[in-house]
Amino acid sequence: MGHNRATLADVARRAGLSKTAASMVLNGREGTRLSAEAHQRVFAAAEELGYRPNVAARSLRTRKTATIAFVSDIVATTRFAGDLIRGALDAARERDHVLLIAETQGDPAFERHAIDAMLDRQVDGVIYAAMATRRLTVPQALRAGPVVLLNATSPDDLPCVLPDDEGAGRTATTTLLDRGHRDRIAVIGRNRLKETDPEVSLAAAARLRGIRAALADVGAGVPREVFCQDWLPEHGYAAMRTLLRRPDRPTAVVCMNDRLAFGAYQALAEAGLEVPRDVSVVSFDDDPIAAWLRPGLSTVALPHETMGRRAVELLLDDRAIGSTVVPMSLRRRGSVAPPADPGPPDAAGPGPR
């Protein structure tokens, strides 16, 4: 990780305090002798100068603290987040480390406070996580490291752990191609904002690249594509209805996530069509809903537990560099079958077969 040139003496000089006073503030050992304003001067000076305590020097005085900070946006309140945290907790526990978890809910002021509090406790490193796979702006205080981004990238090219969404797109599409689907495959979930703004999503564009690459590899037709305002069941339902109104209904559908697939299932059932006899469906994420659908939904699972574990391992082994991409594996269930004989042209529209 980067070596910063600023010293404690530089911070003290900038804050107009003695080196001892600055050290006590930064280490959280200062009592009430200094004003809140003086504390702020020290923290501001440290941030401006990019100062971080010298871990090697500190370890001569004290052992490492055996703690890791886990800072995220909304990660702790979601189901997938539980997997990220579980993987990180397990890896930390195996290495006799404790995880300090802070959820910022996207509040920059609270995030600064949480990060300062954790750095004050001299954590051995920081995992900076996002719920949706996207590009983040990393707070200045973390950029000197050690830090690993989890489920995110940054403009600073900090080390990160990501799911292989492009590989997942290939896997989902190849699953259909292998069962004989070819020129009547549709994609539900196109979304211009998700595909063009990396701060909103990195997954959407990557999954689409994988889908198109798999089709191109076998010379299959361009997929029919339906744009969706968001990746929620109601939009999957509307998109499937749109596809069923077109002259040749698809034999198979790739949904950009399981919630869209849930909506697509409802539209197919309403039209008197069966999954997978009439239309095969494959998706991404492996949300709990995927196993509960009937038939079970084949979906490419987000490897969040493995990702959380990997982030801790890279951080503690001091091997964090560049991007670490974690493969996504297919959960095979009952939603994919060979295409049915489409029958006469008037049988292509919605309705019982």
From TrEMBL:
Biased composition (Pro residues): 339-353
Pfam family name, one: LacI
Stretches the record annotates as Disordered: 331-353
Domain HTH lacI-type: 6-62
Keyword list, A-Z: DNA-binding, Repressor, Transcription, Transcription regulation
PROSITE patterns, per database record: HTH_LACI_2
Family matches, as Gene3D superfamilies: 3.40.50.2300, lambda repressor-like DNA-binding domains (1.10.260.40)
GO molecular function: DNA binding
Protein name: LacI family DNA-binding transcriptional regulator
Annotated organism of origin: Micromonospora zhanjiangensis
Taxon lineage: Bacteria, Bacillati, Actinomycetota, Actinomycetes, Micromonosporales
